[in-house]
Write a structure and sequence with these properties.
single chain, alpha/beta, eight-stranded mixed β-sheet
């Protein structure tokens, strides 16, 4: 009798579940249980911006303090462009007694050692800053020398991945744009090998010797900003370079100053994420002067000829290369170069807003507003002011967003 009652109960339960699923109720229950138990993949993406890297570094130092964890134990994937790429490497390369830099230590490096990075050449017609040189006393300095010092001259990307213990992060990348592979003409150029976008990253470095660059080479390339530093020459196994494939490369900011889309693509390529619903993305900007995203097309400097001239948008090479007023009337140097730098931040942020609204991805874009006098990328006189601004912002108007990010991360640790 008991067996018959038990069988009847099972039949009733089965009928109930079948009915629920048919009506969508059971699926909703199953989905709710699944979503509540599954943690999201936590991704960190950091923009380029020169010394303004103090701002994302300060954000991360506060975040590490709030979570009582270093970044490499918080994020599954960390990537960056230019100054953001250097921060990404600093947070994940075990170069100080087997440990990476804390975000606070990185912020202090920006504050105290800016002049060791931006060393003027003092020469007309050349890039304004050295990559490596020696003064009369025999002291070596410049961006490449500095990168070797803080990231060591001989640690490869694969070694960084393998030697960093007790970590959560499994993929780290920096962006760059390749110009050449041999330093001369190429008979059959291939995109991604000879020219075009390229990522220095842990995943490929552990699988292929040709992609296993020194960490300082990844830093040097991603920060080789045109008109600031010489083109980066990496790999090839000569003159202290790694045995990886020889390349000539420039700053990743020319194509992806906001590398967040790359970060998502890498999460899928490496198997860290399986769907957009798996992702919690934290994208850090370096501060933005909202007025410099556009130009005053009609302005007092326009020639008077009706139908012609600057006032009517007839801008040739000389006009686009000259200083023009932005939307606040302040002069923008070489707008044809500056506008694309803003554009390749706005585009991925706009795309990700749409993706976050239409998928289960959780997305936070941190982009503090900056006054025009704080936007230069190489003015070392601004470092202390930028640091003070960052702390005030994240303790003031940016605190609510910071609190939301802290809570979102805690829910997925």
């Amino acid at each position: 009798m008991k067996n018959r009652l038990f069988a009847l109960l099972l039949m009733c339960l089965g009928t109930f579940l079948w009915t629920c699923n048919r009506n969508g109720v059971g699926k909703a229950i199953n989905d709710a249980v699944s979503s509540s138990s599954q943690k999201k993949v936590i991704i960190l993406s950091i923009d380029g911006g020169g010394i303004k890297g103090i701002i994302p570094a300060t954000f991360l130092s506060i975040l590490e303090d709030r979570l009582n964890l270093p970044s490499y134990k918080v994020f599954n994937l960390i990537g960056g462009t230019s100054t953001g790429g250097i921060i990404a490497l600093g947070l994940t390369c075990p170069v100080r007694g087997g440990q990476p830099y804390s975000a606070e230590a990185i912020a202090k490096i920006y504050e105290k050692r800016c002049n060791d990075i931006f060393v003027p050449t003092g020469s007309e017609g050349l890039e304004p800053y050295y990559y490596a040189d020696m003064d009369s006393s025999g002291k070596h300095y410049g961006a490449e020398v500095f990168a070797k010092e803080i990231l060591t001259p001989a640690m490869t990307l694969s070694q960084a991945a393998q030697n960093l213990t007790d970590k959560k992060v499994s993929q780290v990348f920096t962006t760059t744009y390749l110009l050449d592979s041999v330093g001369g003409t190429v008979s059959s150029p291939n995109m991604g090998t000879v020219f075009g976008p390229y990522l220095y990253n842990w995943y490929d470095a552990q699988r292929s010797a040709k992609d296993n660059y020194y960490t300082w080479e990844a830093a040097r390339s991603t920060g080789a900003a045109p008109t600031y530093f010489p083109i980066a020459h990496v790999g090839g196994g000569q003159n202290g370079r790694s045995a990886a494939a020889e390349k000539w490369a420039i700053d990743g900011g020319v194509m992806s100053n906001d590398p967040a889309i790359w970060a998502i693509a890498e999460a899928f390529r490496t198997g860290i994420a399986q769907s957009m619903d798996d992702i919690l993305l934290i994208s850090l900007g370096c501060g933005l002067d909202k007025y410099s995203g556009g130009l005053a097309v009609t302005n007092p400097q326009a020639p008077p000829n009706p139908g012609k001239g600057q006032k009517y948008g007839f801008w040739g090479p000389l006009t686009w290369a000259a200083a023009l007023p932005n939307l606040n009337g302040e002069m923008v140097k070489v707008p044809i170069a500056e506008i694309p730098l803003y554009a390749n931040q706005f585009v991925p942020a706009s795309q990700l807003d749409i993706l976050a609204a239409s998928t289960g991805m959780e997305y936070y874009r941190v982009q503090p507003p900056l006054l025009k006098n704080l936007t230069p990328m190489s003015d070392c006189n601004n470092t202390h002011v930028l640091a003070s601004f960052a702390h005030r912002y994240f303790e003031g108007s940016g605190k609510a967003q910071l609190d939301d990010i802290v809570n979102a991360i805690r829910a997925n640790l």
